[in-house]
Design goal:
Radius of gyration: 25 Å
Strand order of the largest sheet: 1-2-7-6-5-4
Number of strands: 7
Number of domains: 3
GO biological process, one term: small GTPase-mediated signal transduction
Organism: Halcyon senegalensis
Family: Belongs to the DOCK family.
Structural class: alpha+beta
Order of helices and strands: HHHEEHEEEEEHHHH
Number of helices: 8
InterPro entries: DOCK, DOCK_C_lobe_A, DOCK_C_lobe_C, DOCKER_dom, DOCKER_Lobe_A, DOCKER_Lobe_B, DOCKER_Lobe_C
Helix content: 40-55%
Pfam family, one: DHR-2_Lobe_A
Largest sheet: 6 strands, antiparallel, barrel
Length: about 325
């Protein structure tokens, strides 16, 4: 709504009935999108209006719709059917893109979109625009070096990203909806070793975490939002090991507390955790990092943390 427009305030939407109509539409749309928590927020605005008008009929309809929304949340949580979106970072490189050159975006795709699907779609779209021989998709997620690119080509780099939260945010983001709503930060990890290979032995395996911040929060009117800030965290091999151990412990905890119990799941997690076939398993981690106390005092904290991870792990 633009306030300068002539007669905008006398339009049909600028009345109480108009507002009520728009809010009802919004609630219906949120309901179709499966965002039942937002339905509740919209009705919080509508209920006082109908209460002031003593409109029992409207109130009865709203409370019926609210009951539907909340029972859907309960059922979907139990069935594990809630899916909101999959996110990808897309970087554009090459003068052919004009303003888009060196720009990065986060794309929101329908739930369970595979990397191959979005890759195929963007390849088709930009391939038609520039010619298929001009467009190239960069297959890895390493930082792109502009000097090594062919100036006559257009390059796209697509990486799967996950929503990223700080530890303090997790206190408020408890439900599945909280973790998939109002998202501005995304993360992807790239494994690397100092000599240029992606994967190496445990003691030489580093990891780069890239955290992207978008200019607006998802879900948004547009399904792609540009990245305004980017930060990188480099994890040393022992920190990579700590993360792996924490992840394994979480998986074990999840598998042992599942209700109803799922023996297959537990079997898989256990095999992955203690099976000697996996040479990068916990046993190997312990032998590499914990067999002797590190010489570098900076590593004491990590050393202790890893020992605590193992303590937790063996408890599980």
């Amino acid at each position: 709504v633009s306030p300068d427009e002539e007669g905008i305030c006398s339009g049909k939407y600028f009345t109480e009935a108009g507002l009520v109509g728009l809010l009802e539409q919004a609630a219906a749309s949120f309901s179709m999108a499966g965002m039942y928590e937002a339905v509740n927020e919209v009705y919080k605005v509508l209920i006082p209006i109908h209460e002031a008008n003593r409109d029992a009929k409207k109130l009865s309809t709203i409370h019926g719709k609210l009951q539907e929304a909340f029972s859907k949340i309960v059922h979907q949580v139990m069935d594990g059917k809630r899916m909101f979106g999959t996110y990808f970072r897309v970087g554009f490189y090459g003068t052919k893109f004009g303003d888009l050159d060196e720009q990065e975006f986060v794309y929101k795709e329908p739930a369970i979109t595979k990397l191959a699907e979005i890759s195929h779609r963007l390849e088709g779209f930009y391939g038609e625009r520039f010619g298929e021989d001009v467009l190239e998709v960069i297959k890895d997620s390493n930082p792109v070096d502009k000097c090594k690119l062919d100036p006559n080509k257009a390059y796209i780099q697509i990486t799967y990203v996950e929503p990223y939260f700080d530890t303090y945010e997790m206190k408020d983001r408890i439900t599945y909806f909280d973790k998939n709503y109002n998202l501005r930060r995304f993360m992807y990890c790239t494994p690397f070793t100092l000599d240029g290979r992606a994967h190496g032995e445990l003691h030489e395996q580093f990891k780069r975490k890239t955290i992207l911040t978008t200019s607006h929060a998802f879900p948004y009117i547009k399904t792609r939002i540009n990245v305004v800030h980017k930060e990188e965290i480099i994890l040393t091999p022992i920190e990579v090991a700590i993360e792996d151990m924490q992840k394994k412990t979480q998986e074990l905890a999840f598998a042992t507390h599942q209700d109803p119990a799922d023996p297959k799941m537990l079997q898989m997690v256990l095999q992955g955790s203690v099976g000697t076939t996996v040479n990068q398993g916990p046993l190997e981690v312990a032998q590499v990092f914990l067999s002797e106390i590190p010489n570098d005092p900076k590593l004491f904290r990590h050393h202790n943390k890893l020992r605590l991870c193992f303590k937790d792990f063996t408890k599980r």
